Structure formats: C-alpha cells, structure tokens
Amino acid sequence: MTALAERPARTPPRAERARTRPGAAVLLGLGLAVLLAFGVLVSAANGAFAIAPGEILSSIGHRLWLGGEPVAGTGESVLWNIRFPRIVLGVLVGACLACAGALMQGMFGNPLAEPGVIGVSSGAAVGAVCAIAFGLTFAGNWTIPVCAFLAGLATVAIVYLLSRSGGRTEVVTLVLTGVAVNGLAGALIGVFIFYADNDEITAITFWQMGSLSQATWPKILAVAPLAALGLAAAPFFARRLDLLALGERPARHLGVDVERMRLQLIVIVALLTGAAVAVSGVIGFIGLVVPHLVRMVAGPGHRTLLPLSAAGGAAVIVWADLAARTVAAPAEVPLGILTALVGSPFFFWLLRRTRRRQGGWA
C-alpha cells in the first residue's frame, strides 16, 4: 500500500506504453470463453451429488424448449436450485471484482491498485458484521446484503470527501485516506466481534472469508442490475483511461476532465465492489491479479483490458469455487482463503517486479 502512495509521477515504462496486441487479445478472449464455459460445466457436474455433463446439457435444452430431458430424481432440483445459482453468482462476483480492479489500476496508474484501496470492501464488511452482531432483521434475509452495500457506498463517500481539497482530489491523499479508513474499519469489526456471541462470531468469520454458499436466484436478481450497470458503464471510460496513462497534465491538455472522471470511476468501482461483497463476503486479490495477468498478455489498452478482465475474473471465481467445494469435501473451504493463498504470492512477485522496473520507490 505504501508503494501506491509513494509512487512518483505516472510515467509508464515502455512496456506499459505499448499498444494493445489485437491478435493476443482475440486469442485470450477465446481462451477465457472456453475456460469459463468448461468451468461452468465441470462445476455443475461435480459435488456431493454427481451429474453427468450430458445430463446437464440435456436439462439446459429442456429448460430452453430446445429438446432434451430433465435430470432424473433430485438431480434437477440440485442443478437448478443449488449449483446454477452458485455458478451464476460466481460469474457476476468475479466479473465485478476484476473489472473494478482494472478501473482502479487505470485510475491510479499503478498495477498494485485494487478495489480495497478506497475502503469499499472493508466498509461493506463493517456493515455486514454490524448487522450480524446486533441481530438486525429489518429487511428479512436481505438485511446483511443491504447493510453491506450501503456501508460500502458510505465508506467511499467518506473517503472521497476527506481526500478532496480545493476542488481537487490528489491520488496520494485518496490512497492514504483509504488506508486510514481500512484501519478504522478493521478496528470496528474487532469491536463487534468482541461483543458478539459464539454463533454470531462463526457467522462473521465465515462471511469475512468469502463464500458463495448462500447463493439463491433472488440474490442474483438483486445484484444483477447493479453488476450490469457497472460493467456496461466501464467501457465508456476506456479511451480516457488510456489518455490518463500519459499523466494527468497531458490528459487535461487532450480534453480529459480528470477530476470528474475520477469521481465517476470511484462511483462505478463502489457500485461493482459493493454489490459483489454484499452477496459473497470479502474475496481478495481477484481485482489485483486478474487485470494484471490480462495486461501482460493483451497489452494495456483499456478497450480490451476491461472486458477481458471481467471474463477472466468470472472464470477464476468459477474454478476457485469448484476447488473450495471439492478440495476438502464434504467440508467447504472459504473461497476467500483460496484466492488469498494464490493471490498473496503473486502480489509479492508483482511488488518486486514493479519495484525493479521502476528502479526503486524512492
């Protein structure tokens, strides 16, 4: 995090200034599409109740009035009421987190940025933990997601207002304010846990680790409009983010209203991350790892980086959730633990690589 705050002028190295590689982008897009489709099929087939891939395709055809037969016995209910909701929610959550990460990295001009930098995840966690610890039920089963989403948006608003001065928002001030708010959020979560009973502590701990085990079609219908809005709005900023990579002053000379764009991007990132965290808990490193891997293959152009990151995030979450369900069956490993186990070593490697290419942070 300190690296983000101390980075000097935003002058990307020659590799980052390279133009997008269209051929690589097309191949990567096809590869991600195949990886995602195969992951959906494998995830739907595997679990405590095994379902043959052919039966899954037949059931899908039956639901779409294209022929085929439903899965025999309880398999149809398991497929459509348990596994497909979980898979679809994973696709939405992964796409939201990865796209938000790509936007954050473009806005800060730093590959080490991710949605948690401005406190969205920690703020949403405070809202959810507060609802659990105090037993709030004003919205029924929706109380925890509603509290998480509203708290995430409120946290972003606080961070933005505190970092704004003289009609402008400096990136360094925004990052440092986010660090302070993240620390305060962690302290508040600790206070709530201190006063919670054993059952509430179990629920809080599992929620903080991230999971898709509570996926239902109503939750998907609730988060899908927010995810669709954020994912649809993101590509409209692609050209301006490419210009911003040249530096704030050149971007302004080329007609980019940097301050206005930064505010709009913060709102979109808050929308995407808040919606994802509200239904899945805290799942880290997706917004950091996926956009950077896509950038390494397809280049830094945001016209391809944003949609490919969304597709990559969806594929990663689907496969990671499959591993979470099966690696320690019949127990389930929290999804956030698996992403952290893979993401943390990658973050260390990325930190050292970026520092070496920049010649140090000082």
Automatic annotation (TrEMBL):
Cellular localisation: Cell membrane
List the molecular function annotations (GO) for this entry: transmembrane transporter activity
Claim: Zinc is one of the keywords in the record: no
The transmembrane residues are 84-104, 116-136, 142-162, 174-196, 216-238, 265-290, 333-351
Q: What is its main location?
A: membrane
Cellular component per GO, a single term = plasma membrane
- Going by the entry's taxonomy, the superkingdom of the source organism is recorded as Bacteria
Record keywords: 4Fe-4S included?
A: no
- BP terms from Gene Ontology: siderophore-iron import into cell
**Name assigned to this protein:** Iron ABC transporter permease
